[in-house]
Amino acid sequence: MSELLYVDACVRGERSRTRRLAAAFLERYAQRRPGDRIRRRDLAARRLQPQYPEILAQRDALWAAGRLSEPMFDDANQFARADKIVIAAPFWDLSFPAILRIYLERVSVVGITFAYDGEGEQRGLCRAEKLLFITTRGGNFSAPEKSWMELGAKHLEALCTVYGIPDFQLLYAEGLDDVRTDGGAVLANAMERGRTLAESF
Ligand SMILES: Cc1cc2nc3c(=O)[nH]c(=O)nc-3n(C[C@H](O)[C@H](O)[C@H](O)COP(=O)(O)O)c2cc1C
């Protein structure tokens, strides 16, 4: 039995098209692997505080004392232990919503999700072999002339290297707010791609 961690950063909740895209993937995944456990972490429901000075100080003190099992590190420990990870977040301001950034700051803990070896080289400690990022975008950012401005998927792909997750995958629908695009058709197409992806994920 595998454990899939689903991190939901779809701020608009039931109105979120990203969440609908993720649901298409997860529904098919659950059908195909009934024995697997899907753990959902809803970032809008159980909220994390940004690492303000006092929170960072508390974290540093716990870390220095080697107390890595404290609740402060629950998200990092859960992330490190998951067999597979799916993150769903809309494209906001060329990246993703701040609630996901705050979550990632909590996940990035030396000694839990990554470490440094004796030579000072960084190495990942996460068990997951793959991470799927699901996103929807108002505009088109996969075209070569605009792709450099897309900083959400790139950020997560880079973090996968830090965490030691070798296989980064991306499922997206874009141009959903562009008057030249049939957003409904684009989303339906992406949902179908998501179902196909779920067969082998
Ligand atoms: C706060 C905010 C920021 C956004 N920033 C961008 C952006 O930089 N580029 C873009 O193409 N679309 C942007 N959008 C549009 C969303 O990417 C698009 O509507 C997406 O499908 C929303 O996903 P959702 O339905 O899951 O909330 C933004 C939307 C919001 C609400």
UniProtKB/TrEMBL annotation:
Q: How is the cofactor bound?
A: Binds 1 FMN per subunit.
MF annotations from Gene Ontology: electron transfer activity; FMN binding; oxidoreductase activity, acting on NAD(P)H as acceptor; oxidoreductase activity, acting on NAD(P)H, quinone or similar compound as acceptor
Gene3D superfamilies the UniProt entry points to:
3.40.50.360
Q: Name one Pfam family in it.
A: Flavodoxin_2
Source domain of life: Bacteria
Enzyme Commission (EC) number: 1.6.5.-, 1.7.1.17
Cofactor(s) for this protein? FMN
Q: Where does FMN bind?
A: 136-139
Enzyme class, spelled out: oxidoreductase
- For this UniProt record, give its keywords in alphabetical order, as a comma-separated list: Flavoprotein, FMN, NAD, Oxidoreductase
The segment(s) forming the Flavodoxin-like fold domain are: 3-192
Which reactions is this enzyme annotated as catalysing?
2 a quinone + NADH + H(+) = 2 a 1,4-benzosemiquinone + NAD(+); N,N-dimethyl-1,4-phenylenediamine + anthranilate + 2 NAD(+) = 2-(4-dimethylaminophenyl)diazenylbenzoate + 2 NADH + 2 H(+)
Please give the InterPro entries that the UniProt record associates with this protein: Flavodoxin_fold, Flavoprotein-like_sf, FMN-dep_NADH:Q_OxRdtase_AzoR1, NADH:quinone_OxRdtase_FMN_depd
Instruction: Tell me if NAD is a UniProt keyword of this record.
Output: yes
Concerning SUPFAM superfamilies, the annotation shows: Flavoproteins (SSF52218)
The UniProt subunit note reads as follows: Homodimer.
Instruction: Report the sequence similarity comment from the record.
Output: Belongs to the azoreductase type 1 family.
Known role: Quinone reductase that provides resistance to thiol-specific stress caused by electrophilic quinones.
Can you say what this protein is called? FMN dependent NADH:quinone oxidoreductase
Q: Which organism is it from?
A: Lawsonibacter faecis
